[in-house]
Structure formats: structure tokens, C-alpha cells
Design goal:
Blueprint lengths: L2 H6 L4 E3 L18 E2 L5 E3 L2 E3 L41 E11 L2 E13 L4 E14 L5 E4 L2 E11 L3 E11 L13 E13 L2 E12 L5 E11 L1 E2 L22 E15 L8 E14 L2 E10 L6 E12 L1
Parallel strand pairs: 1-13
Antiparallel strand pairs: 1-15, 2-3, 3-4, 5-6, 5-18, 6-7, 7-8, 7-9, 9-10, 10-11, 11-12, 12-13, 13-15, 14-15, 15-16, 16-17, 17-18
Length: 318
């Protein structure tokens, strides 16, 4: 299990406050969008298409529409530790520090999420790590490249589900434990709108080491709550990114994540030993182009090698 995968296997609990005068599901709280006669939400020339439901045959080549909230107005928030069910066009720059029994690890990861169509997209991840083992010289090097194709299987007003396949490519340095083997990790990601800007998310799957013949199970679960702490219109205008689709400045999110992983097929002494970890953090929308966030990680049982850790970064919305 790579450091990148260990980060991805944390469930998600996200909170974010809503201003006193902005109701949870009121669409105007995110910029004054109303339903039009065609069943879409629009602002100026931008319109959000009606959900396609559980139809598996249509809309695969329809153009992706830039939108950061559900048809009912709930913000589509990104979590620290696992991939979302929905598509987007974002660039993530994340710094991570972890303290383990065997030493410390620092990592900077660049991640690009890119939607090709309404139902198809891809994620690219490249980490760079600095390891400081106890009693040994520090080492650093590039981690393995991960490519994650995504296909949205279902979309309703309150639910999104996608099939994902993370492909680990051994492009990294052996000095930091990378570059050793190919891996495949198919997983199902879901997002549920629970109402009043609460949402439930999950990501569950298996990771197969193609050279080690080891199989790991992982599951992340979480809940998010969004609130608006101030209205950008008080400052005289809507946010400057004039697409009518972005999250507004002043969206605050307190985030917590829980992550379970363990070997289900491999060395006998490692099978069915599951590590449980968690993250609590905060995210803030500076404008509809940028989010800044930071979180603290810690173990929930004795099977985790993690003692404590920190993650911080920036999301740029294209």
C-alpha cells in the first residue's frame, strides 16, 4: 500500500457553516439560481442539465457542464482522502507530513481532475516524497504516477455514483518505496445529498498488486455539511469568475474522514489485519476559483503504522 493510497483510504466527514440568512437547500444561497422551464438551473448563459438518473445508455459524449453544486443547490465538496463520485476540472496541490514508528515522511502531491464529457473523466496524481527513517539518512524521490479513469453511472437530484479504476504505474524512485510494481484498484464512489447541505460519501474497492499478488480491501465513509459564512454580494458584486457555476467566497467546511484498509489475500501474517485512521480538518472557499484547506490525521486502532500527520493544500477550480 503506497503512501498515496494510504491517503486515499480515509472516509470523509465534511462540515461547512451557512450564514444566518442563507437556508441550506435554498438555491439563492449559492448565487441566486432558479429552475427554468426546461428543468435546469441557470445563471445568465449557464444552465445545469437535468439529472439523467440511472440511464446507462445516454449522455456519454455530452459536453461536461461546469457546475459545483447539485441540482438542489448542495455544494459538491472535495475531501482530503478519497476521490469523489462526481466529475470536475480542478488542480490540487497538497502537502502531507506523517509521523510513523519507523520515522517521518513529507510529501507534496500534484493532482489534476479533468472531465472530458458529462459522464467521463480522469484523475492524474504525482507525489514527491522525503523520508526520514529513524537512525538512517534521509532520502527523497518521486512517487509512482497514478491514473484514475472515472465513469459516472448514475445521477439524480440527490445521488451520484461512479466507477473508478486507479492504475498505479511504477515510475517512482525505489529510495522512497516506489517504482516496484504495477497496481490496479477498481472502486465505486457515491455521493448522497441528505438535505440542508448535508451529504454522505463513500469509496469502496480492492487494490491488486500485479507483481506481489497481494490484494487489499479499502473503504472510506463520510458525511459533509456546508454553510455560507458571508455573502459575496455584500461587497457589491457576484464573485468575479462569471460562469454562474462556482462555489462562492465564504463557504467554510470542517472536514473529518475515516478510512479502513487491510490485506485480504497475501502473506498469512498480514491477512485480515485492518488499519483504521481518521482525519479532521477545515476548508475555506477564498473565491469561486480557489479553496484552501488543512487537516490533522491520526490512527483509530493499533493496526495503523501512523502516529499522527498533517495535510494542507490548495484547490484551483478551472
Amino acid at each position: 500500500m503506497t503512501a498515496t493510497r494510504a491517503v486515499l483510504l480515509v472516509g470523509a466527514l465534511g462540515l461547512a457553516p451557512a450564514g444566518a440568512c442563507h437556508g441550506g437547500e435554498a438555491s439563492h444561497a449559492l448565487g441566486g439560481h432558479d429552475h427554468d422551464a426546461a428543468g435546469t438551473r441557470g445563471h445568465g448563459h449557464v444552465a445545469q442539465p437535468a439529472p439523467f438518473g440511472f440511464n446507462l445508455t445516454d449522455h456519454w459524449l455530452d459536453p461536461w457542464v461546469h457546475w459545483h453544486r447539485s441540482p438542489l443547490g448542495a455544494p459538491l465538496l472535495h475531501h482530503f482522502g478519497f476521490e469523489p463520485a462526481f466529475l470536475g476540472k480542478e488542480l490540487f496541490v497538497t502537502y502531507g507530513w506523517g509521523e510513523f514508528d519507523e520515522g517521518e515522511e513529507h510529501e507534496v502531491e500534484i493532482e489534476l481532475e479533468w472531465a472530458f464529457t458529462r459522464r467521463l473523466g480522469v484523475v492524474l496524481e504525482v507525489p514527491y516524497a522525503w523520508d526520514r527513517p529513524v537512525g538512517e539518512a534521509a532520502v527523497d524521490g518521486l512517487g509512482d504516477l497514478a491514473v484514475v479513469p472515472r465513469a459516472v453511472l448514475a445521477e439524480t437530484e440527490r445521488f451520484v455514483a461512479s466507477a473508478n479504476l486507479e492504475i498505479g504505474i511504477p515510475t517512482g524512485s525505489s529510495r522512497v518505496g516506489a517504482g516496484e510494481q504495477w497496481s490496479l484498484a477498481p472502486f465505486l464512489a457515491t455521493w448522497f445529498d441528505l438535505g440542508d447541505w448535508w451529504a454522505l460519501s463513500s469509496a469502496t474497492g480492492l487494490e491488486f498488486g500485479l507483481d506481489s499478488n497481494e490484494t487489499e480491501f479499502f473503504c472510506s465513509l463520510g458525511v459533509s455539511k456546508a454553510m455560507r459564512i458571508h455573502d459575496a454580494r455584500r461587497f457589491g458584486a457576484e464573485p468575479p469568475h462569471d460562469h454562474g457555476h462556482g462555489l462562492p467566497a465564504g463557504l467554510l467546511a470542517f472536514i473529518g474522514e475515516v478510512y479502513l484498509e487491510g490485506v485480504v489475500d497475501g502473506e498469512a501474517d498480514e491477512e485480515n489485519v485492518f488499519a483504521l485512521e481518521a482525519l479532521v480538518g477545515i476548508s475555506y472557499t477564498v473565491g469561486d476559483l480557489f479553496d484552501v484547506r488543512a487537516g490533522y490525521t491520526f490512527p483509530l486502532n493499533g493496526n495503523s503504522e501512523l502516529d499522527r500527520g498533517v495535510r494542507a493544500g490548495v484547490i484551483h477550480h478551472f
